[in-house]
Amino acid sequence: MSSREPSEAAVRRSRLGTNLLSYSVPVLAVLGAFAIGAIMLAALGANPFTGFWAMAKGAFGSSGALVETALKSTPLLLVGVGITIAFRANVINIGGEGQMVAGALASTITALGMTDVPAWAALPLALAAGVAGGAVWGAIPGALKAYFGVNEILSTIMLNVVAVQAMNWLLRDPLIDPMEIERGTRIPQTARLPESTDLPLFVEGGRLHIGPVIAVAAAVLVYLLLWRTTSGYRLRAVGLSADAARYAGMSVERNVVWALTLSGAMSGLAGAILVLGSEGHRMVTDGSTIGFTGSAGFNGIVTALFGGLHPLWTIPSSFLFGGLLVGAIALQRAAQVPTALVLALNGLVVLFVVSLDRYRRQLKEREEQSVSSIATAVSEGDESDSSPSGEDDDHG
Question: Residue 185's CB: how many other CB atoms inside 10 A?
């Protein structure tokens, strides 16, 4: 007992130190990005402190700013949660942009067909259609990966292109608002969706709808799925070791498809919320996915990495990144700097987060090795202690 107690204390100290270093990595990433951003601001003749203070106020300094940050963080959270599901099965989903578009299109088509359906049924059906659309767009690369060995990075990226082209065609012809044809303007947008499919607002006349609440609830449900259900255990087992999972009787192929399907479903839900919660209550395109998604499909990946690829930690991570995106506009106005600098600052945060994530993984590996070595030492010590006593008893 005496040898085991110090060893357990050593394990706790090792884990505590590793966790502190691991959790400090995202903070260091942001500080590093802002340090370089400050140099860039100074080089342009702007005061970095004034610019960053304006950025913080623009993101979190008022109730209106908090509303904008919450709305901006909603698709980031949902895409980020989807990324964590795929990662746990050891697959990479770069198709969040296309899955958001697929979910938005499915939700829009469903909503347009429910003009006489009451709100209690119309809104859930429209949201479910978005989930289904994203799930299908995620299942396709999942099946290609599982059964044909197609690299999921390539297939998800290519499906982004397919989704945007499908969106452009649908909004310029079959789904275009009839009034646009009558006026001859032909703006690629749908008619106003039925009011029964509008996301409810917390304050009448305001902008904050229930989308952020849905996103947080989805993150909690994904956490319960991954760590409290048999299905989630299988997904994580496949991600840790496909060979061991297969040896244990699990279907690796089916779980890979399931992981990318669920990942796509989360992005599809994000797309549905963007449409149903928009101010115009219609789907509009400028010919690109970014014009609709605001790059949430890609920024959600960084959000997930910043949150340690954990559904619950992705919640504050998404709120922080949503604040960065909202506050960047205030920074641009206060410091009178070009838009390119704001984009560069966001890119620096992405670069630092992705780069330092590798360091965080190395810390985790060192911790596992340290704990393993301590356990081995304790085991050997116990055997050496018990062996002489056993011999003495036999001789006695």
Answer: 10
> How many CA atoms, within 13 angstroms, populate the side-chain half-sphere of residue 154?
5
Residue 45 has phi, psi (to 5 degrees) of 85, 10
321/302 Cα distance (integer angstroms)? 9
| pTM, entire model | 0.87
Contacts of 360 (CB under 8 A, 6+ apart): 22, 25, 308
For residue range 177-200, what is the model confidence (pLDDT) as tens digits? 999 998 988 999 999 999 999 999
In terms of C-beta density within 10 A (0-12 exposed, 13-18 middle, 19 or more buried), how is residue 116 classed? exposed
**CA end-to-end span of the chain:** 24
DSSP 224-282: HHHHHSHHHHHHHHHHH-HHHHHHTT--HHHHHHHHHHHHHHHHHHHHHHHHHTSSS-S
Contacts of 295 (CB under 8 A, 6+ apart): 97
